[in-house]
Amino acid sequence: TLVLPYLRRRLKLSGIIASRVIHTSGAGESWIDERILDLEQLANPTVGLSAHPGQVDVRITVRAEGDTAARRELDRIETEVRRRLMDAVYGAGDTTLARAALDALARRGWRLTTLESGTDGALLALLGDGGPAFVSGQLLPSTLDEAAFLDELGRTRSALGAEVALGLHLRTALDAVRACVSVQTPDSDLQRQFSYGGPPANAPLWAANMALDLLRRSLA
């Protein structure tokens, strides 16, 4: 408790440095760059990007005289980032993509079951215990073809009485990685194909995040 005040006096430092992280999914780094490039060129606060498989974080850092001023400036930039990136933003701080999707399910009073294949259980790992909105998750054999996988997804949803089923079928063929994501809800039945060109070791995490992003968007 004595060191920081001493250093501030000794080095003639004033003010504080505070930061906040805004989380996005379903949008590439270049797409985000196009929309907030002028913010990234600011001297204070500073705005930077950090890319992860299937997600991009926007970090805002500000130097201010005190907590109130720092919070005010962080709020101002966060509001502008959210306005420009719209539904690509799913949360901030400690919010995870899985939590954002599960919270959207809970608000509707719906329950989720998941099936995945070719992912080494990456989707289950992100969902964790999931809480009351998560009924069950299964990892199916990687030998199952896409048509059989989708049939099993529908049967599982019906058998468990879950309102929502999320299916993730990940395959590598001819050096191309493709993820088929299916979201079945009482309101819609969505299927999307995604291609991946990054490091192969990151493909399961990328695919799981793409699946969760499609789920949370379908519940918006």
Structure description:
- The chain is of the alpha+beta class and 220 residues long.
- 40% of the residues lie in helices and 32% in strands.
- The chain contains 7 helices and 9 strands; from the N terminus they run H-E-H-E-E-H-E-H-E-H-E-H-E-E-E-H.
- The protein has helices at residues 3-11, 29-40, 67-85, 97-108, 122-127, 146-160, 203-218; strands spanning 16-25, 46-52, 55-64, 89-92, 112-117, 134-140, 164-173, 176-184, 189-196.
- The strands form 2 sheets. The protein has a 5-stranded mixed beta sheet, with helices on both faces. It has a 4-stranded antiparallel beta sheet with strand order 2-3-1-4.
- Helix 5 links the parallel strand 5 (112-117) and strand 6.
- Helix 2 crosses helix 3 (67-85) and helix 4 packs parallel to helix 7 (203-218).
- The longest helix is centred in the middle third of the chain and has 19 residues, at 67-85.
- The protein is elongated and about 65 Å long.
- The relative contact order is 0.14.
Q: Determine the strand fraction and express it as a percent band.
A: 25-35%
Report strand order across the widest sheet: 6-5-7-8-9
> Separation of termini?
46 Å
Biggest pleated-sheet summary: 5 strands, mixed
Low-confidence stretches: none
Radius of gyration: 21 Å
Number of strands: 9
Helix content: 40-55%
Decide which structural class fits the backbone.
Answer: alpha+beta
Secondary-structure element series = HEHEEHEHEHEHEEEH
Q: What is the count of DSSP helices, taking H or I runs of 4+ residues?
A: 7
Mean pLDDT: 92
Please state the overall shape, judged from the principal axes of the Cα atoms.
elongated
